[in-house]
Amino acid sequence: MKIMVVGGGGREHAIIRKIRENPRVTEIYALPGNGGIARDAECVNIAATDIDAIVRFAVENRIDYAVVAPDDPLVLGCVDALGEAGIPSFGPRKNAAILEGSKVFAKDLMKRYGIPTAAYETFDSLDRALEYVKKAALPIVVKADGLALGKGVVICETREEAEEALVSMMRDGRFGHSGDRVVIEEFLTGPEVSVLAFTDGKTVVPMVSSMDHKRAHDHDEGLNTGGMGTVAPNPYYTREVEAQCMQEIFLPTIRAMQQEGRPFTGCLYFGLMITPKGPRVIEYNCRFGDPETQVVLPLLTSDLLDIMMATTNGTLSEVPVTFADRHACCVIMASEGYPQHYEKGFAISIPEDIADDVYVAGAALRDGTLVTSGGRVLGVTAVGDSLQEAIRDAYRKVEKIHFDHAFWRHDIGQRALKAGE
Ligand code: AMP
Ligand code: GLY
């Protein structure tokens, strides 16, 4: 089978490695992939948002199955376009990807179907939003409606901060049209848990839970990033919480989307907060998380491609989805200065004996040498029988990898370790 994976980050690298385990797979193309993914797939220089070029490539190369991994092509309708060209693919159609594409849609859906989430109001008028925050309880959370590269959420401790966030989103167009509408919501507290789930629109099968570390620096200091490291499973996701999430959140969400005529297929990412009043949905993503995927898929003991195809065919209830009863840790090595300004082009050295545990996110090949080309450069994953072992091994491997101006957090998994004690 010829497989095509749209995207080019660490998440896509992890997906490609896992898909390659299926014996029927003969070729894997990555669009655009990256310099590290080139070890495991043929990279094709087509941007993940160039839907026309993606479809043309898939047709010309007789792709049997496509995996659309990032949010933008999903929200733009890549799965629909491939489907019209006769190519089956993994991921939601445009009318279901809106669950991530519009926070107003997601919040209104949860309200209509009684799915637990933070109390909120939506606004498309700056004046009314400003009026509202004058009286609202603090802290308060301001969210741009549309996709904003993970930066569209501002936790405001003061009214001035809230006013500033609203003006920058709604008047100054900081996130383009993504900020035309905003959600203003109640501030919740509690540990966060990421749960990725396979779904064919009817059946939902949660994967092993995970914990992301979003801030750039140790002890959760510094700016928010796309994610600086992950561990799986997440100790806050107890059996009790798991059962509650299934009944109150996962199944109701899948049913709600079905009832709305927007059946969701692919991977649905539940960003949860375990509050004193129970689990609440913080956000939905319409795709695998990055770097959650880099700890979840290494623990998957069944065939990823078979599961993916079953989500497309509506036969998810018939395929095994099993995970090893072990632990995984992924540490992201980034370029100094990320998530703001950083320099690129530094040579990366990765010893061959650990190369298969490295998922490359932002690196390019220059004259045959791998060089940094992004903020998050790569993720290093280790699997162990205990969380402690997974963390220790991940950091041992990190120490063996070198590039100039590398930085990483030193405390990935520490909070999970304490919670598990
Ligand atoms: P998001 O981009 O939606 O994942 O939000 C980024 C981060 O903001 C989340 O991971 C949470 O840590 C935080 N956050 C979002 N909404 C809330 C909320 N209602 N209360 C507290 N923290 C929040
Ligand atoms: N790691 C968070 C995300 O993928 O959105």
Care to describe what's here?
The protein is α+β, with helices and mostly antiparallel strands. It has four domains: 2-91, Rossmann fold (3-Layer(aba) Sandwich); 125-180, 2-Layer Sandwich (Dna Ligase, domain 1), CATH 3.30.1490.20; 192-318, D-amino Acid Aminotransferase, Chain A, domain 1 (2-Layer Sandwich), CATH 3.30.470.20; 327-420, Phosphoribosylglycinamide synthetase, C-terminal domain (Glycinamide Ribonucleotide Synthetase, Chain A, domain 4, Alpha-Beta Complex). It has 13 helices and 23 strands. The strands form six sheets. Strands 12, 15, 18, 19, 22 and 23 form a six-stranded antiparallel β-sheet that branches. The protein has a five-stranded parallel β-sheet with strand order 3-2-1-4-5, sandwiched between helices. Strand 1 (2-7), helix 1 and strand 2 form a beta-alpha-beta unit. The radius of gyration is 21 Å and the shape is globular. The model has no long low-confidence stretch (mean pLDDT 96). The structure holds adenosine monophosphate (AMP) and glycine. Adenosine monophosphate binds next to strand 8, strand 9 and strand 17.
